[in-house]
Amino acid sequence: MDSSSPEEQPLTKLSLITNTINQILQHKFSPKQRSSEQPTPEQPSPEQSTPEKSTPEQSTPKQRSSENMKLSLDQLPVDILDIIIEMLNSPKLRTPLASVNKKLHALLQPIIFKTILMLWGTKESPRQISHLLRSLQENPQLRELVKIIRIVPCSPFFESSPNDKIPVKNMGPAIDTMFDNIGGAKDIMVDALGSLEKDTGAVRALAKKGDTRAIVPLLATTLPHLERLLLTGHIAAQQNLLGSFILACVNHATESGDMDKLNVPLASLKHVELMLDYHWGYNYKITGVAATYLAFFYLPRLETMTVHAVYKGPQKWPSEQPPVATCLRYLEVETYHNEGRYIVNMMIRVCPALKTIKWTHLWGENDHKGFSLTAISSVLQAAAGQLDGVILCLARSSGKMGSMFGPFLVDIERPETFVTGRLILAPLVHATRLTLTWVHLFGLAASEDVQPGPSTFPPNLEVLSIRASRLITQEHLFWQMFSKVRVAREFVGKCRLYAPRLRVCEFGLGVFVKHPLEDLIKRDLIHAGETQGVKVTFHPECFASPTLFPPARGDDSVLPNDWKWLVRDDDKEEKDDEEVEVDEVD
């Protein structure tokens, strides 16, 4: 390794990141992909065109090739960006964002600052936030680059205000500078927050305390090209003022005729995630957050939306005029009880371009009302002409008033009445992908009355994924293992009968418990699928047993008297012998 001067020492971490990125690119982008994804050359920004101090690396062919890969680096997904940011913010080599901004290599600068990741609720949070805000004000080019904001709490159970337990210092000058520079957006912010905060001074005071209710709208007005906003836990729960801000922005654009130009704060947003922890969703004190996530549907460029719908949320739009989300194509929503179908129905009807929906049904403590598959089907049928992918889930909720967990399905006294009705997805003529987690549909619950029928599946279904709950991991149901394998054989046949275009059937976590005869079970079902023209696959953790150890007995003595394998065990032994012979020859 070449010796470096003391001036180059601060770049050591950046050099490591550069090498990491190059390694990632070799795996993420094949040579064919890189050549086919070459975008048209863009005009370099003032920062990139400014000559830097020469270093031994900058004139080498290796460095020039890295610079040529810069355009491909812009295509990196969010998870890779998170790795880069995590490396920069490691405890051993933590560098304030303001100083990092001055030292960043030209190859890394447009990537690292593409994402702002803030961990809220630690002692370092105020310092990091103030450095970030100061950097945004001192560097106009930086504001143009940022496209993603992620704000997460330091703990999912940190239920009090994130500002009550940490001192917030030295943020005043940065906040004042931002307020002085946001121009006309200041009036929109004051109007939006004016219902609860009477004047500009009160809004400034909120921001200076580090309150996310003021910080998030402030960042939105500062970043003109923001595309993705991700808020988690109590950070998302306390954004009740953000909805008012969004509606004020939309109303301002409508009144001034700027809706076509989209020159309003937050108009560039394409992807939004507001994920509450379940115990927050069950908290009656935060029902105002529902108006916030419903307000996002008014944004003109919204493409994907992920939201945890709070318990007993509103069932009407926050504005008199319902939105028309013409660009929204992916919707992921978690709802409680059957009331969730009203919220999902509201959302579906205003999304004419919706292609994929993931709908998770939650139930909580002492909640034995259950769910109606017929009612759920009627909601999805409202989008029959557009959906090509449907994911339906059934999950336990964290309870209310400090009780964190709902009951297991096996703990419900009458599971045959917990999930009722029939799933009717035949009207979804464009759907080719379907994921289900209801064990009833697979015959794994006490009730066998809910079975696939001619109207269960979309007619053009190609890929079906069955992800059952952890029902069969309970020990008292383990001995029904092989009856479930028999049901699985029949299920594949029924799926092929009622979905003639089905080509892949995946069994997921918890359908089968870990068992010494795992390989034979897999081969048995794969063979059953082949006879039907269906490729049977298994989730990587399909045979995992996360809660209980399975009984030790795993030989043929546990098989039912009338049990017959579709494939013989000695077939495997013969295959193994052949492999050994080949290995010896090699």
From TrEMBL:
Residues 36-57 have a biased composition (Low complexity). Residues 58-69 have a biased composition (Polar residues). Residues 70-116 form the F-box domain. Coiled coil: none annotated. Residues 25-70 are annotated as: Disordered. This is F-box domain-containing protein. It comes from Plectosphaerella plurivora.
